[in-house]
Amino acid sequence: MTAASAPPMIRVAGVDKFFGPLHVLKNVQLEVPKGQVVVVLGPSGSGKSTLCRTINRLEPIDSGVIEVDGQPLPAEGKELARLRADVGMVFQSFNLFAHKTIVENVMLAPVKVRKTPAADARKTAMELLERVGIANQADKFPAQLSGGQQQRAAIARALAMKPKVMLFDEPTSALDPEMVQEVLDVMTGLAKDGMTMLVVTHEMGFARKAADRVIFMSDGEVVEDSTPEAFFSAPKSNRAKDFLGKILTH
Amino acid sequence: MSVLTNNLDLFLRAFGQTLQLFAVSAVLSLVLGTLLAALRVSPVPVFRGVGTTYVTVVRNTPLTLVFVFFVFAYPLLEILKIDEYTAAVVALTLYTAAFVCEVVRSGINTVPVGQAEASRALGLTFTQMLGNVVLPQALRSVVPPMTSTMIALLKNTTVASGFAVFQAGNIRETLADQGDNVLIGLLWVALGFVILVMPLTYVQQVFEKRWSVAR
User: Fold this and answer.
1) What is the mean pLDDT of chain B?
2) Is residue A5 part of a domain?
């Protein structure tokens, strides 16, 4: 890092994590500077989702340091809740609140956590739903929407907290193929607007187009950390070559 | 029929008391039981321990013993004097709360873990998550067993008759004292309970119908 005054938005240093005897994260180092879009690629079981979930401590780590905007992750409690409020997260399975309408989903955290008056929260929520293209679905329940619409609602819900950084944990993996693009379009738009993003995905097109950097993980290790052009045209490691060979041939 | 018509005043007064005993204990046990369920799913081990111990002790104790404790043993402790009616409410509430707790907890377990994760990721505290996301969804799926628990409570109020709290369970004694036909009297009491339970079943149907649409 060059500028010592501005800490990276996300700093992961020497992180290890075990699931029982399984060593899922092995001495992981990663920095995401403000405004960068970093895409994490890798075969399933490589630990990329786990890495994403450790950053807001949905998965606690066994050793190492994780800092968000220069602040080490606190232990579970009010302080961690405050930090999580600034870190948006989008899940593979959307996880919209099933008993609330779409607009209520987007409003809930601003009203409860940020204490925004309901009228203001609703206004912001409707603007965000407009931005992700589902304002006309605002009063429906999540189960009444398609997968793509649900995931866009989930992105709006995360954005409603005005997060400093967004984490995407395989946001398109549970979608029917024809709905992948509408979600990726929203994400590409966010990236263009300068949002700091860490994206775990299998969408190579998105990685090529929107990423500033590509991280390649395998067996719990960060194997490569380079620009998309360098990674896709000339991967350095055999594991990356093998992985690209498998996904780019079909 | 004459057993009923000649003693209509007795029946009405007794069932009125039963209803009152039930209503107060139902509200209190729903509140206490939900709080206990919150303790049992809390991230703090001490809270979980308290909830588990409560359920284990109270649920495994016969209701009559709980009554005996509050009517005869508790006054000997000389903490706060309570009359028999209050003792009955306390006994029924504490006893039923253990069952309510387990019903609510089973409901909480039906809510997908992703709902809690999404709440935490948005910065909601544990209490906010429980109150705004998990419990509202949990309570929807427990309407039938919760109704059963409440019906059991309604019928359990008759245990109070052994402890000087007048209600429908006492009708038999009064009838026997007057020399009325006790068997017929008891049949009327049974019918009275069936009539009291019917609105509960109706409330169950209303909630089930309303909440099934919202999903």
Assistant:
1) 91
2) no
Whether the predicted interface score ipTM is above 0.85: yes
| Integer Cα distance of B30 and A248 in angstroms | 58
In a domain, A122, yes or no: yes
List, for residues B139-152, the tens digit of each pLDDT value.
988 999 999 999 99
Inspect the interface and report whether the beta carbons of B122 and A97 lie closer than 8 Å.
Answer: no
What CATH number is attached to the domain comprising A90?
Answer: 3.40.50.300
B79 in A contact zone (CB under 8 Å): no
DSSP secondary structure string for all residues of B185-214: HHHHHHHHHHHHHHHHHHHHHHHHHHHHHT
Counting the structural domains of chain A, the total is 1
Question: From edge to edge, which strands make up the β-sheet containing A87-90?
Answer: A87-90, A165-169, A196-200, A37-41, A213-218, A221-226
- In angstroms, the separation between the Cα of residue B121 and the nearest Cα of chain A is 6
Is residue A63 helix, strand or coil?
strand
> What is the distance in angstroms between the Cα of B109 and the nearest Cα belonging to chain A?
15
Cβ of A78 and B125 within 8 Å? yes
Å between B101 CA and nearest CA of chain A? 22
Domain ranges of chain B: 2-112+142-211
Query: What is the pTM for the complete model shown?
Result: 0.86
Q: Which of B214, B118, B210 is nearest to A98 (CA)?
A: B214
Residue A145 and residue A16: Cα distance in Å, rounded? 39
CATH T-level assignment (fold) for domain B2-112+142-211: MetI-like fold (1.10.3720)
For residue A82, the enclosing domain spans 10-248
- Among the partner-chain residues A93, A99, A109, the one whose CB lies closest to the CB of B122 is A109
Judge: A108–B114 Cβ closer than 8 Å, yes or no: no
End-to-end CA distance of chain B: 48
Could you tell me how far CA A85 lies from the centroid of its own chain?
Answer: 14
Euclidean distance between CA atoms A59 and A131, whole angstroms: 31
The predicted-structure confidence for B3-57, as pLDDT tens digits, reads as follows 888 888 888 888 998 999 999 999 999 999 999 999 999 989 999 999 999 999 9
**Both tokens of residue A126?**
């409707």
